[in-house]
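Exam review. A common question shows you a sequence with its structure tokens and asks you to describe the fold in words. Practice with the pair below. Do the first one on your own.
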Amino acid sequence: MEAKTLAAPWLRDERFDLIDLPPQDLESPAATEEAFDEERRSVDERIRRGDLAAALYRVQVDLSGAKDDNVSETVSSTYQYLKQATVDGDKLFPDLSAHLVSVDVRLYTRSKLPAILLRLDQDPLFIDDIRSGRAGQSTDSLMFGSNSDLFGSGVLTDTFLGPLFACRSPLLWAVHGQRLLGTVVFNLGKMIPGVTPHPVEPLQLLPRTAPISWPGTANNELPSQRWADAIDWWVLKLDQMFACLSDPSNFSDANGSYLPYHHQNWLMNIQELFSRVTSTMLSWRDAYATRISPSAP
């Protein structure tokens, strides 16, 4: 994994040309263009009513729906959109910076190795289909998908960035947009309230262990570059973790034979750990949920 700073107050030039991501359609088919247009119209109506959350959500909608050949331009225009946002004549995010977190496609392919071997081990008839050529006629996208709903989705999306983004919950310091094997992060340069003290949905009126106090305004602001450093540090540590986690030679028996089941368990447990930690940190309205152990199974 790699982190790049695309634009920031401390950089002389903007570097949106560094964005180089694979085509979005390599994954599952994205929503239709009509669906994105309808979602934008709905979000724009909320923005006109002064909804800040809707304005930040529009960032995610635009980046998810951008054409493959227009991603750099979309990120650049979104950066300018956030940078020029004002409240009572004052810029809302004057110290905004933009970053790209990319995942090397080799990490994804290495993570699929145990899934392939598990399928071959559990389905001997499938080997005959491969030899005869019948398997080549299959249109099943989950042919080797035993971990696609867990670790596979974690590599393709932003699962492993969740604890970083939620580290000051219920305050918010960044908004991100997701692409295939890449996440665009906009460091707001400040912390803003991530929740309102009043229920915003009827479901939040049901019995729960409410927090003792409501979040106030941030009183320990950090320089924008410190948050940028945090992104670089977090991605560096993820890169080191995946270098070990994706290496098949680290999952072998005493004779050096590869153990795909053992490797698969580690891949799934790590993804589950990151997902649980993020969910716990975001469960701010339920004090009981925040105390649930996030340890992996």
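Now try the second one, then compare your answer with the model answer below.
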Amino acid sequence: MSSPALHLAVEIDGDGAHPAAWRRAAHSPDQLLTPRRVSRVAAVAENAGFTLITLDDGVLPPGAAPDPVGRIGAVERAAFVAASTSTIGIAPVVPVTYAEPFHVSSQLASLDHISAGRAGWVVTEEERPEAARAWGRPPVDGADARARESRDGVEVARALWDSWEDDAVIRSVATSRYLDRERLHYIDFTGDTYAVKGPAIVPRPPQGQLVVLGRPDQVPAAQLDVALVGGRDLASVTAAAAAAGTPRVFAEVEVALDTPDATAAERVADLEQHAPWRDRGRLRHIGSTDQLVALLAKLSHHVDGVRLHPLVLDEDLSVLSGLVVPALSARRLVARPLPGTSLRSTLGLARPANRFTAAAAATGTATATATAATTQEDVR
């Protein structure tokens, strides 16, 4: 880890991590998908000092009746939030099991431009066979096949982000030159199931490469900037973090906190009457804020950050913002993102060199060396 600071991310899709969370929400169900709702939640997280918000997504509805099942695309919500925030990172969940990586890379690059370098990407999988029918594509069966699609999708997106060199855009009105064609590159990708020629249709993102987050068992560690690791206890999370092999590691933590109106256990029991809280193999905290602060302090020795999944956003996010984050700040365990900094900078990640620029530079160096050696031989 580059610093003692623990980066805090929070998932803000829907009304919370519990499928029946809407029953305890502070708004009526018909307000869930309004712009005011998503911007208000994002503003609470930003003002509290969170590093990152994530927005879950998938082509299929997130639940079933009688629960609300509507959802707006994560990239669209992220773009809206980007325009109304200034420091917090924004990472939509975008599976590439069936989605076209060329279009995904363009959307995410545009998001990075809109947010002035605060965008990330959470890579997941579409596991249900119904997703294939929704896309009108043959099913991708099996964990290995889904991992292949994720691997190839991330490789294509990263290559396309590099297909424009940083100074490819000229914008010279005097010379009527707006683009240097020599600084655009074909990526010439050929995978097991598709090929992509390139280049991209969007200039290189401000960060060079967006911050890519995902599970190491679904995406190769070499393609990730941040590994999202699970585990039902501290020892399991610690072991997963040590084995991740990525520049940064975030632990997945589900939280249900005591509130002035009810204890965490009472709130969970109330929701469990309507639906079970699915076990996703994540560390789960049900209890007081002091206990959560102590847990996060222990985690700070093993991971670079945590992604919190609140039981009910309207109840738990206010407690996280008002009590947990200030307590962590007082112990110097978290640091607030600074205005004008990219998400990569906030996480202590360097801006990567463009692969095509680096290749050209290496070729030029090799040519110069060969020329110098030939000249020296002629002198002899």
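Model answer, second protein: The first strand starts at residue 7 and ends at 11. The mean pLDDT is 93. Full marks require stating both points clearly.
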